[in-house]
Amino acid sequence: MGLDVMPTAGSCSGEAGFLRRLARLAAEGGQLDTALTLASQAADLSKPDGAGLHAHSLWALGDVYAAHGDDAAATTAWRESREMFRQLGSAEGPPEH
Fold it and tell me: Whose CB has fewer CB within 10 Å in the chain, the N or C terminal residue?
């Protein structure tokens, strides 16, 4: 899947957010392998762009892992996401499972 339409200005935050949203849509449509690929790419791209974006990407990744039936990976992603939100002083984040 090419994302040549996404302009870059030294940051991948727009692309990571776009991939995260696509992952959620793919998961809702039952395309779990595609969703997992997209969510993983979003998490990888969001690492250098800030904890908030990365926390959201990990949250989405956890949701996709859960839909895919990988509860251990989902729990790990959600836990990392919650910890990042806590470090940011935010009450946002995935619920405890």
Answer: N
Which residue carries 């990888």 as its tokens? Answer: 44
Q: Residue 23: which domain range?
A: 13-87
Residue 38 lies in a domain: yes
User: CA-CA distance, 45 to 57, in Å (whole number)?
Assistant: 9
**Closest by Cα among 56, 60, 53 to 39:** 60
Domain count, the chain: 1
CA 16 to chain centre: 8
Q: Quick one: which of 30, 42, 28 has its CA closest to 77? A: 42
pTM listed for this prediction: 0.81
| CA distance from start to end of the chain | 32
Question: Residue for token digits 């997209």?
Answer: 38
